[in-house]
Amino acid sequence: MTIFSRIINGEIPCYKVAEDDNYFAFLDINPVNWGHTLVVPKREEDYIFDLTDEELAGMTVFAKRVAKAISATLPCKKVAMAVIGLEVPHAHIHLIPIKAESDMDFRNKISDPDAEKMKQIAAAICENFK
User: Fold this and answer.
1) Stretches in the chain below the pLDDT threshold 50
2) Catalytic site residue from 36, 90, 92, 94
3) pTM
């Protein structure tokens, strides 16, 4: 069982921002920018392109809804999307609010993000999720 499945199952706490029957979204605990969110399918699959066509399409539509909630919550030009997939063997999409392309630099993470700020951001994104 991956760490993401354990988060989905409530075994590990997270800053949840959205959920439906098939997908789950929560703040990255090592964000590159405030509001950096991970979108994952509830079904474990290591490689995003091994998801079924329906799962991948559904995950993308779910991620779009989450991105709209992020942009309604945080000041940004756009919400960028990245799929890397090497750090956890569970397909996931990174959604990161950006003002410039340099905001996508995964080497520049927020060190020791404030838990209260993360909680407030998660609650606000959740409120804007429609």
Assistant:
1) none
2) 92
3) 0.95
